[in-house]
Amino acid sequence: QVQSTLKDTLVELDKKHFIHPTSSLKQQQESGPPFIFTEGKGVYLTDISGKKVLEGMSSLWNVNVGYGRKELAEAARDQMEKLAFTNSFSSFSNEPAIRLAAKLAEITPCDLNAVFFTSGGSESNDTAYKLVRHYWKLKGSPQKTKIISRKKGYHGVNIGATSATGISPFHQMTSSLAPDFLHVDTFSTDALRDCIAKEGADTIAAFISEPVQGAGGVNIAPDGYFQEVRKICDENNILFIADEVITGFGRTGKLFACEHYNVVPDVLLLAKGITSGYIQLGAVVLTERIHKELIALSDGVLLHGYTYSGHATACAVALKNLEIIEKENLVENSRLMGEKLLNGFKKIQAEVDIVGEVRALGLIGAVEIIDPVTNNRFPTLISPKVSAECAKRGLIVRTVGFEGMDTVVFSPPLVINKQEIDELISILRDSLLAVQ
Ligand code: PLP
């Protein structure tokens, strides 16, 4: 009784005062929040009514080490007690930021060695667009300003990141995209070549892509695609930015997804799994070559920085989070459990008529819904119904219902074990059968 009164009070306060990100304002007023979570442990969350759910999405693809990690709470508390925060402007520094920058230099591929800190993925993107333009300007090519990204790519919600995002519904809140952002077909290297030829390589600063598109429906590149992209960028003197905000830190079964393709970007964007969501942090990693050129050519202050760039507490939590990922072999677990997840999807595909293509790379995956008669999408979206059935049965998933897709996507914590994968697959199967 007490608990239900508390819940009612919170729901009313939520409706009145809390504007939720990426949510339907009307639906929030009608039904209130579907869950008010109060606790998390491993891959499970508990809500205020006591209902326990399996988190098939690691929240927003980011709680890689799972919920309820006391080590991370202790790392934050220890650092806050000593020195919670000091700014990094004018080259002021702090030990966790220095150690984390050095650690990222060590674990990222090849000569990706110099780190600019942000507070999340959108900031990492906007920072990268400004840095690459600044770089070309310093090198005497100020006309190299254009950023090419891909259709179905997602890069965040700041004006620059929104403009690079290739999913048109996300453009609705800007009257126009920022100048000089172009989109090409997702996996077409011909489209990339054509775009460069049409615009002129001397006007293009960078090409950006996610190694595996996440929010655009978990789209995994065909063999050879990224090697060809790297070649095209080199031939045309265009920088290659890899947005590993989702795919970094083990999500795909390698520490960084570009390792699947043996391709090293010039700029690597990180966030999310860098702290497993325990605190806000993002990073932009540059190659040593670009860093050295920026130092040699710079003629004043680098006028770009966030108050929280190099936040001591966030960096201390990130260091502990990376220690957990290493100690518990979570990258290998992601690879192994990812295989099991994909096998589970395939079994469901054989059994359930409305399941189309299924795919996964490590612990990021997707199940497409199709009309078995036409082999196309149904006239109305089915995936939200699947997601609602999953929630009823105790599994959180997300859906992608734009750009012709009707897809359920998955990204469970990297600590997930065999029994928990079986549970996920069993609930998904029952939910699909219930809507079919
Ligand atoms: N880049 C990618 C690939 C993402 O998936 C996201 C968020 O989902 C972002 C950037 C934006 O990150 P944030 O929401 O932390 O600003």
UniProtKB/TrEMBL annotation:
Q: Which InterPro entries does the entry mention? A: Aminotrans_3, Aminotrans_3_PPA_site, PyrdxlP-dep_Trfase, PyrdxlP-dep_Trfase_major, PyrdxlP-dep_Trfase_small
A single Gene Ontology MF term assigned here is:
transaminase activity
Pfam family, any one = Aminotran_3
Q: Which UniProt keywords apply?
A: Aminotransferase, Pyridoxal phosphate, Transferase
Keyword Cell inner membrane set for record: no
SUPFAM superfamilies, sorted: PLP-dependent transferases (SSF53383)
Keyword Transferase attached = yes
- Superkingdom: Bacteria
Task: Please report which protein family the annotation says this sequence is part of.
Answer: Belongs to the class-III pyridoxal-phosphate-dependent aminotransferase family.
Record's protein name:
Aspartate aminotransferase family protein
Organism listed in the record: Neobacillus kokaensis
